[in-house]
Amino acid sequence: MNFKTDPSHSGANVLRRDFPSDFRWGCSTSSYQIEGAAQEDGRGESIWDRFCSEPGRIRDGSSGAVACDHYHRWPEDLDMAKQLGVNAYRFSIAWPRLLPQGRGAVNEKGLDFYSRLVDGMLERGLQPWATLYHWDLPQALQEQGGWANRATVDAFLEYTELVTRRLGDRVKHWITHNEPYCTAFLGNFEGNHAPGLKDHKTALLVCHHLLLSHGRAVPLIKRLVPDANVGITLSLHPISPASDSVEDAAAAIRHDGLRNRWFLDPLHGRGYPEDVLALLGSDAPQLLSNDLREIATPTDFLGVNYYFPERIENAPGVAPIATRVVETHGVERTAFGWEVDPEGMVTLLTRIQRDYAPNCVYLTENGSTFEDELLPDGRVEDVQRRSYLQRHLAAAQRAMAAGVPLKGYFAWSLLDNFEWAEGYLRRFGLAYVDFETQQRTLKASGQWYAQFLQPGEADR
Ligand code: FCB
């Protein structure tokens, strides 16, 4: 493919028509971050409701109890997605809305909500992309050990069956898990996400069960929805050593092992990486004989969430594997402190291609947070986010030119929303949300995306 790439990498000249005509253009959201209505229509408690209720967990003391009130305002939100001109919409399903106790009794009202939502997408020309698990586990299952309990894998399959039976006639794109790294390690080792545990062995067991539940869900979804496309979404980082030292080089390899290869290797049939297993010793998960085979069940695509690169130094004594992410000075950053590095996305995607050769890749999330301000005249001039978007789209083109079978891009996120442990302090939306009034305002970045996506003369 011959792309007209912008040699300055500024992204200012990126054009939709330089992408293949069947490229998927989308935006991403997740249930707990936008829906609110946490106690409505029979929804059960999730681990995030519980986590948010514990003092000190969320930076601004907030929760997703109301969030963007999307549960009630979804028609307006889907209208906004349509106004952007995207042709795909990635959302997630709240397990406790459907199965308030995690298993057993079904909450029909929850199923009806998602059924209406999917119809709303289709009416607006938005291809639904459903994520089954974007972190809101029913609290009732956590009380039985959560993902550290192997029985949660069975519960996930029951939930998956319920959802796919109800929505599979209309939803053909399924993502089993969003970022199992975050579920497992932020939630169970670092403890800054729900359920807030700090135990590495538990995190590794959780991680194994997440991957196993993914591998088992793939054939189940395909049996129930024969024309389904099924994949998993991983949060991956390009990793490099912080210095030229031999120690940092070795640390970067270790870190990459646990951060990236720990997921990519077993999903691609190689089992868990030997070098990492050796480091983990008795913390490594105990496997049953078929686990690795099931985890490696072939999928239709790999979902990649790309945000930032990581530079790693050797850090003796630092758990779990003596590595530390270092801050590089003099680089551009978002308000979160995440380095802005579009070329890192090219490095990451080409590396995945070289080492694993997936036949289809989607960027299922990419986006940035800045200190947005709603001006008195109603504009939000988020020029940094606009530039971020432009440069990452240009990077997507470069990755494709380098042979990556990238088939779509989903911007994170449609709306400002509840950003987990950061509460409402981090805005990632293409649309600004005033959380007092729930008024939505398309930001300059959203207006640019809409203009970019507008079919030009040549495409009509
Ligand atoms: C990703 C999550 C998503 C959002 C973005 C900023 O790790 O998948 O829910 O929080 O980060």
Report on this model:
With 460 residues, the protein is α/β, with parallel strands linked by helices. Helix content is 39%, strand content 15%. It contains 15 helices and 13 strands. The protein has an 8-stranded parallel β-barrel, surrounded by 4 helices. Strand 10, helix 14 (383-401) and strand 11 (406-412) form a beta-alpha-beta unit. Helix 8 packs antiparallel against helix 9 and helix 14 (383-401) runs parallel beside helix 15 (444-453). It starts with 23 loop residues before the first strand and ends in a 7-residue tail after the last helix. The model has no long low-confidence stretch (mean pLDDT 97). Beta-D-fucopyranose (FCB) binds next to loops.
